[in-house]
Amino acid sequence: MDCVVTGGNVKVLAKAIHSLSRIGDELYIEPQEGPGLALRCVNSSRSAYGCFLFSPLFFSRYIVPNGIAFRCRMSIKSVQAVFRSLASLEKTVEKCHIHLDKQKDRLTFTLHCKYGLLRTHNLSFQDSETLQAVFDKNSCKNVFRANPRLLVDTVAHFPPSMEEVTLSVSDERMWLRNHVDEELGDSSAMLTELFLVSDEFDHFAVQAHTSITFCLKELRGLLFFAENTGLPISMYFDEPGSPLVLSVSDSILEGDFVLATLSDDTRNDTRRGDTPPARPPDDFMNDDMDSYLIAMDTSIAPGPSTTDSTSSKQQVVANHRTRLHSEEEEEAETAEKDGPPNKKFCSLLFGSVLPLSSQMSTQPVSNQEVLASDSDDDTQID
């Protein structure tokens, strides 16, 4: 791989890297001959994913050897250090040369500054598989597009420590408010809510009146990039539990942030309807599988009635429940004392390994093994 970025595009590349740093700690780099250079990142709980794709026209020189697939990951902080001074980057740096040194197994970033000054960074990397989130933003029912300044001014009303916000839409308005978990019963929490009318958006299309809750940190990251590049930001989403997709694009680059949303237990119970009853409490896959099926809106045809069970099976189930009775009481008492919030960010799916032909495609991959990961909070509780 050998590519050169010149002029103002150096700052755009730096902004993209700093924007991805809001998501995770590792940067996945994948140069592709046709689509261009892909930079990807995912957080530790796999509930947020970001990707920037720079076409070959973005570079003054872009060379990728034919038939040689190169994919690597490295610490995103080490790459941030290359472009650490964003304020003076455009004034001092004339071009950036990115080169793969096969002999030393290093990815070299060389900044050509004014007055002939060269700054070279040799970064180590690890080989990796293709990282790709599986989503289809074109199938979402609610689509919005707005100037980034509108959303930046809106998000500025929420403090930096705010973790989650709830977005609600109707035919003519969009509401944003800070998310307060009702189960925690914190009556002293300050509530902030504001709304935007449809005339303030460049595009406002609502097919489903719904509310979704997502993390604000990743939204701030993409707004940081969109505001500095002046690109409009688009939003795609359906219902609670399905991903929220944030996108920016022009003729030479494309950026997608995919954020998991909080699944609504009440709506999940309603959506289950006449599905078979839940498994016994000792089934460790019960909660996660239910959330996975509901979040992906998997339609399950109700099977035949099972009310005519044999007496022997009923006796086995009765004995099994009797043995678990004391354990359930202890778990109930522990839950009343600790009172953890019953919520899961479980909507985002990732293909474990994708073929080389599927790179930036946003279409779901058939027969592809996918994983639905819980949030960090669930991992700690388990």
TrEMBL record:
Compositionally biased region (Polar residues): 304-317, 359-370
Keywords attached to this entry: DNA damage, Exonuclease, Hydrolase, Nuclease, Nucleus, Phosphoprotein
Compartments (UniProt record): Nucleus
InterPro entries, sorted: DNA_clamp_sf, Rad9, Rad9/Ddc1
Catalytic activity: Exonucleolytic cleavage in the 3'- to 5'-direction to yield nucleoside 5'-phosphates
Domain of life: Eukaryota
Biased composition (Basic and acidic residues): 264-274
One annotated Gene Ontology cellular component of this protein: checkpoint clamp complex
GO biological process terms held by the UniProt record: cellular response to ionizing radiation; DNA repair; DNA replication checkpoint signaling; mitotic intra-S DNA damage checkpoint signaling
Primary subcellular site in the record, as a coarse category: nucleus
Ranges where the record places region Disordered: 264-286, 298-344, 359-382
A GO MF label: double-stranded DNA 3'-5' DNA exonuclease activity
Family annotation (CDD domains): PCNA (cd00577)
Entry similarity comment: Belongs to the rad9 family.
Functional summary from the UniProt entry: Component of the 9-1-1 cell-cycle checkpoint response complex that plays a major role in DNA repair. The 9-1-1 complex is recruited to DNA lesion upon damage by the RAD17-replication factor C (RFC) clamp loader complex. Acts then as a sliding clamp platform on DNA for several proteins involved in long-patch base excision repair (LP-BER).
Protein name: Cell cycle checkpoint control protein
